[in-house]
Amino acid sequence: MNRKRFINVIPYILALFVFLSLTSVSRFNNTEYLATNTFINQAEDMTFKDVNISVGSVIVSVTGVYEKNGQDVSFSTSVPNTDANIQWLQEVLNEGENTVTISDPSNTSRWIEMLMPIGSIVLLGGVTFYLFSKVMQQGGGNKQAFEFTKSRHRVESDVKVRFDDVAGCEEEKEEVKEIIDYLKDPKRFSDMGARIPKGILMVGPPGTGKTLLAKAVAGEADVPFFSISGSDFVEMFVGTGASRVRDMFKSAKKAAPCIVFIDEIDAVGRQRGAGMGGGNDEREQTLNQLLVEMDGMTQNNGIVIIAATNRPDVLDPALLRSGRFDRQVTVSLPDKRGRTEILKVHARNKRLASDVSLENLAKRCPGFSGADLENVLNEGAILAVRENRKEITMADLGEAIDRVMMGPAKKSKKYSESEKRLVAYHETGHAIIGLKLEGANIVEKVTIIPRGHAGGYNLMLPEEEKMFPTRKDFMDQITGYLGGRVCEEVVFNEISAGASNDIQEATKIAKAMVRSYGMSKLGPIQYSDDSGNVFLGRDYSSNGANYSSEIAFEIDKEVRRIINECYENCKRIIMENRDLIDLIAGKLIEEETLTSEQIRNLVQYGTLTKPEENIEEMPSTEVSDGVEVVDSMDHVPNSETIEIDEEGMVTTPTTEIEGNVVADDGEDKDPVTPKE
Q1: Which end of the chain is least crowded, N or C, by CB within 10 Å?
Q2: 637: cis peptide before it, omega within 30°?
Q3: What is the pTM of this model?
Q4: Topology of 336-406 in CATH?
């Protein structure tokens, strides 16, 4: 470190020498040289001040200052070394107050005075060359601004990440374990005649841990980790990307065994000939060089290339063939068990309260990636710090999930009373469908507090995560999405624009059932193009449909039929549970947020809290002896037993029905609860 500081100080030292040299040269150039005859003729009329006499073997050098026109002028001259001249000099120069100094000629050399101007020029040229070379090397502050052909990879020689730091992808770890064994002992594989894969392509959604898994492989094998992004190869100058590829592989060969990780390889590895710029653009030349370098890698040379992308559909086929990226590892979203393990990893440095259950938290986060789960814990920690708490509570983590999914709550935004009732009944409609349909998502939380772009929020979770949903599961999901819209129509005889996203999701599922899954009258035929995202140059001329207009008409009819069937089923459920809807919506208007436990209590007991265990019977809601208050709508169950009391309220005798209402078919119905 001290050596680097000394090197940085060198330019300032050289600049100081240059300044001093120029000063001495300037003074030397201002000295007036007097010829011998001129000095002898004018010496008696000159007024001297400081004079130095240097007596040599042949000549006597005289330097000093004399007064000319009221100004001091430096002079130098020389006279022959004779006894008469020395005596004359002493007489002339000693007049007045002049100071005469006689110096030894061995202590000074005229050659030094003559070489000082030349040395100053050489020194100045050296400083200029040094500064110019530094500017060219650093590029005005950026050390590699002018080194276009140098690879911009980053090298980590001591990777701290291990497999214990990567959770939720046990199968993916198994796929890369032999890479670790190979990097530790490649001779075992070469003796067996086995060829280790040259390249491993990790495919998966963003945030699933592809980069972390690649770094863990390097950490477990204890080898250098070269990391670079695909966009770092591409440059505006033709041939730069190819040069960077060569430079990167050259550096990797020197550090072998090692791992070369290329993130977002789709930036450089897209299909050739599919772009709009022809076949000679910079990106395609870079890809060609990458293919050549991978072909030039000898077997078991100690270099393993790991690449990551979330768009494998746009990669060039030559890049995916055997001998290049031999193996593809799909890093998918974690399941419930994987999410629990990921939360445990990220909770190592968190202070969690005793009420926090990572298993329950993982259950509430279906579809979350590892990055999302880390963000949930981080948001929960931030909320705990904001409230000046010492530990992170389950309430903090619940709010963190809502913030990650929908954004922060907009508590300052106020509804009108009519809008508040509309939103409450809309969200209650979703909740009722989740309670009554087996395949629909279960209600975890309902709130009418605006959050993000949504006026209300209904957290619906699947009862169990299925890998292969059935047709009934899809139908129940569509019915659940339509619950809010149907509830608005039944209760208010009006519909709002709040169900636009619900309709969009329901239509998407219905189209997938018809076009992709063969779950319609059109039979097991796929009518959708499953090529992935549109790639400009390959798909811009395609209309995306591989069927005729007649089939398109039939598809529209089937989609409409599925939606209408689910709509009618949803309307039937809403009508049958109208009293329960009024109860939940009323409590939702009061509390603004209901949890799954509170909703279950409302369904079973008619209250937000569970009655005490020592109370065997339900709390009585009687307003007079032998009568129970119910809704005054004309869809009350057992309407044949309805009576009108003296105050005009709709009542039904409690002596005939005790506990839950049981229908003719034996199905247990929800208890009737009065409206407030």
Answers
A1: N
A2: no
A3: 0.60
A4: Helicase, Ruva Protein; domain 3 (1.10.8)
